[in-house]
Amino acid sequence: MDARLDYFASPTAGKALKHFMSAGMTLKESPLPAATQELVALRVSQINGCAACIDMHTKEAAAAGETPVRLNLVAAWREATVFTDAERAALELAEAGTRVADAATGVDDELWTYAAKHYDEEQLTSLVVLVSFMNAVNRLNIIAQQPAGDYEPGRFH
Question: 55-64: long-range contacts (C-beta < 8 A, 24 or more apart)?
């Protein structure tokens, strides 16, 4: 499968993606735990069906020491015993924030309160921006049909 667009060859995309990459680096440096960031990025990408991002975040998480068991169970995190309460709150917020059209309530007050028990305001801000960022990147990749499978950890970080 070949991508419909080569974002790196486009001057317009190059300018826009420079800012996307900068936003991504800012999130990496945020106080939201790195493991949580990768789990959330992976779950958002699974929901959206973004193969390129699933490939990237699975490999980045593994390279950072995440276990295969946890990576394999992200898709079924509610039934898995390998995630902390804080990670569960982040994954639930990520799902609600990604499925805004499917879930009439979006991120309701109960979920927000649950997440706020585990993360301070700066971490919550980072989590919300990460969910939004991943949804945008997923759409860029899905629309252009970016292929998956050859990502090397560290390529964009």
Answer: 55/148, 55/149, 55/150, 55/151, 56/151, 56/155, 56/156, 59/151, 59/152, 59/153, 60/153, 60/154, 60/157, 61/35, 62/153, 63/153, 63/154, 64/34, 64/35, 64/38
Distance separating alpha carbons of residues 41 and 134, to the nearest angstrom: 6
In angstroms, rounded to a whole number, what is the distance separating the alpha carbons of residues 11 and 56?
24
CA distance 65 to 31: 18
**What are the average pLDDT values for consecutive 10-residue runs of the chain, which has 157 residues?**
81 88 92 96 97 95 94 97 98 95 82 97 98 96 90 79
In whole angstroms, give the CA distance from residue 43 to residue 48.
9
CB 77 within 8 A of CB 83: yes
Q: The pTM is what?
A: 0.92
